[in-house]
Amino acid sequence: MYKFDYHAPASRQAAITLARDNDESQFLAGGMTLLPVMKLRLASPDSLISLAGVPDLEGVEVSPSTISIGAMTRHADVAADPAIREHCSALSALAGLIGDPQVRNRGTLGGSLATNHPAADYPAAVLALDALITTDRRVLKADEFFKGLFETALEAGELITEVAFKVPDAAAYEKFPDPASRYAIVGVFVARFGSDVRLAVTGAGDHAFRYAVAEGALAADFSVEALNDVSLDSAELLEDLHANSDYRAHLINVLARNAVKRLLG
């Protein structure tokens, strides 16, 4: 690890001011992705601004149509929240599949989205549940948030404060995890909203994305058979020591079929 300054502000405005005054600073939430990335020298901020002592950035509010989760809410809390389980069990199940107990009790929703690791679980839920990401400056739609490898629509010093997920009629998340890290080699989240279907994929590209062809097929006929003739071009998918692009393309369709089966009972 290299030298950097560490700040522990006690208010949201103090954190925002620190970030505004130093373009090379970075917010620190749970640190589950940021700190390993810093160790590998893939990021080298001059200072870290801890959000651990900032009030009003965590918690869950649920209405019949929306699940609003504070950015500093930990994965374990999302997984255990009874209201989230009642209104969207797929979201709480996804949170329970992240990493191990240590990661789930330190990692946060906002930190995961701001870092945008290509194999993180939450981006699939954000896209499939058509979420709105609220920051200290604006509200961003899910479809405009994820831009590329570790890249989002966030501007320098912009702070995620809350994420509002739409409550679906039904949803399911299927994941094929790396056995060591528990990151998704591929993860597929399927959500139904009336006759509309949203299907999002994580772990297979340089960032999470929607699988539009499969969405169209399922909107026309929500059945496993509707996916029989659907295919995904593997040319732009990731290849690494865990899986090549063709295998990931195959996994996406397998997991999508499994998610539909789950929703159909």
Q: How are the secondary structure elements laid out?
A:
Elements: E1 5-7, H1 12-21, E2 25-28, H2 34-39, E3 47-50, E4 60-62, E5 66-70, H3 75-80, H4 82-87, H5 89-96, H6 101-104, H7 109-115, H8 122-128, E6 132-135, E7 139-141, E8 146-148, E9 151-152, E10 160-166, E11 170-177, E12 184-193, E13 196-202, E14 209-210, H9 212-220, H10 245-264
Parallel strand pairs: 1-3, 2-3
Antiparallel strand pairs: 4-5, 5-10, 6-7, 6-10, 8-9, 11-12, 12-13, 13-14
Plain-language structure description:
The chain is of the alpha+beta class and 265 residues long. It contains ten helices and 14 strands. The chain is globular and about 55 Å long. The N and C termini lie far apart (49 Å).
Radius of gyration, CA atoms, in whole angstroms:
18 Å
The largest sheet, given as strand count, sense and whether it forms a barrel, is:
5 strands, antiparallel
CATH topology of the domain at 170-264: Enolase-like, domain 1
Q: N-to-C SSE series?
A: EHEHEEEHHHHHHEEEEEEEEEHH
Say how many strands there are: 14
Binned strand content: 15-25%
